């Protein structure tokens, strides 16, 4: 079996090639750029492949996304139709996202930006906020990451809501499903966390219309994809006071260009797509196991649905 590996950085690619080769001794693992016989490649393991990369391989059995999202694979206009896509999820990816969401929800809840501004001015200014059960927090997307984040927030005592496509039951979380229950989910939310996948249905969902449906002074945390957010709508909502603060981990263009207004807006916290990444070691073992399972059974637990988009 030949596996071709691509990540945007050559040294990272080589690291993954060596690691996967050590985990799959009977297989041949090659950097995509070094492949000399494209017809021999049966599996591709990729993060943000370039347009046309997959179309080079006529005998691909499956594509593995080194990450939970598959949007970076599906965005290739020349992607061969019908090739299964396997995503990579694991406990440390979930744990890191729980930490990131808890950190930034608590930061907004306790109004840390304002407290830090007071410190900057040597101002002994005690900010008293409601206790967590009096704070309504909403999580959009209740999959692997969103459900874990919602449970974490509920455990912290927040009045936690969740929204997904199909109905869910999560202990301690008030759940809503589908477009019909979206407005009820949003109404009264003071902190909104986005953990939706990027699809044609969710693109641009964080927009002026949504901002207007939240509680006054709401905060937004986007740790899913930059394409979910309409940047200008957020800047206008911060300017008008509809939205108080935002934490953004993902952007339309990454790295976020140095001249982007988000960098300099005091109401925005920018983090460089670090909310959660799978540990390379763990991720490698998960990918190797998924490849072996797929090769022997033709399927595996982490198979995504390319038609659905996640
Ligand atoms: P997942 O397991 O595929 O779950 C997606 C959730 O979104 C599901 O609950 C799904 O509903 C819901 N959903 C999808 N389309 C919807 C729609 N149109 N309306 C309402 N709900 C919808 O995804 P995940 O593993 O939790 O990951 C979520 C996203 O996080 C990834 O796609 C990726 O973009 C992002 N991510 C970011 C980072 C980072 O570091 N910033 C790291 C990892 C992942 P159903 O359950 O009903 O299908
Ligand atoms: C990271 O953004 C992922 O999709 O895993």
Describe the structure.
By secondary structure, this protein is an alpha/beta fold. The protein has ten helices and twelve strands. α1 crosses α10 and α3 crosses α5. The radius of gyration is 21 Å and the shape is elongated. The relative contact order is 0.14. The structure holds NADP nicotinamide-adenine-dinucleotide phosphate and glyoxylic acid. NADP nicotinamide-adenine-dinucleotide phosphate (NAP) binds next to α5 and β7. The site of glyoxylic acid has 3 residues, from loops.
Low-confidence stretches: none
Structural class: alpha/beta
Mean pLDDT over the residues: 97
Instruction: State which percent range the strand residues make up.
Output: 15-25%
CATH superfamily of the largest domain: NAD(P)-binding Rossmann-like Domain
| Percent range of helical residues | 25-40%
CATH architecture of the largest domain: 3-Layer(aba) Sandwich
Strand order of the largest sheet: 8-7-6-9-10-11-12
Q: Tell me the domain tally.
A: 2
- Terminus-to-terminus distance: 26 Å
What binds here, in terms of ligands, is: NADP nicotinamide-adenine-dinucleotide phosphate, glyoxylic acid
Round the Cα radius of gyration to an integer and report it.
21 Å
Q: Which sheet architecture does the biggest sheet show?
A: 7 strands, parallel
CATH class of the largest domain, named Alpha Beta
- Reported by name, the CATH topology of the largest domain is Rossmann fold
């Amino acid at each position: 079996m030949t596996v071709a590996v691509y990540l945007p950085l050559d040294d990272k690619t080589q690291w993954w090639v060596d690691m996967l080769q050590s985990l799959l001794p009977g297989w041949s693992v090659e950097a995509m750029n070094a492949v000399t016989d494209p017809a021999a490649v049966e599996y591709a393991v990729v993060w943000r492949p370039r347009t046309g990369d997959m179309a080079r391989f006529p005998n691909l059995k499956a594509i593995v996304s080194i990450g939970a999202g598959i949007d970076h694979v599906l965005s290739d206009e020349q992607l061969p139709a019908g090739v299964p896509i396997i995503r990579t999820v694991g406990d440390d990816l979930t744990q890191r996202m729980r930490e990131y969401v808890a950190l930034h929800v608590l930061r907004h809840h306790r109004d840390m930006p304002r407290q830090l501004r007071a410190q900057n001015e040597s101002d002994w200014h005690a900010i008293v906020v409601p206790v967590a059960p009096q704070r309504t927090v909403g999580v959009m997307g209740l999959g692997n990451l969103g459900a874990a984040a919602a449970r974490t927030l509920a455990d912290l005592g927040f009045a936690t809501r969740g929204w997904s496509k199909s109905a869910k039951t999560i202990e301690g979380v008030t759940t809503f499903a589908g477009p019909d229950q979206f407005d009820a989910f949003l109404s009264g939310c003071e902190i909104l966390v986005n953990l939706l996948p990027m699809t044609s249905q969710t693109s641009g969902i964080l927009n002026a219309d949504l901002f207007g449906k939240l509680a006054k002074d709401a905060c937004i945390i986007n740790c899913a994809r930059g394409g979910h957010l309409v940047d200008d709508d957020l800047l206008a909502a911060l300017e008008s006071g509809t939205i108080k603060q935002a934490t953004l981990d993902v952007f339309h263009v990454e790295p976020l260009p140095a001249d982007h207004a988000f960098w300099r807006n005091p109401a925005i916290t920018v983090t460089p797509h670090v909310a959660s990444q799978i540990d390379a070691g763990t991720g490698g073992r998960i990918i190797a196991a998924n490849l072996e399972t797929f090769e022997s059974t033709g399927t595996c637990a982490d198979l995504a649905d390319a038609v659905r988009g996640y």
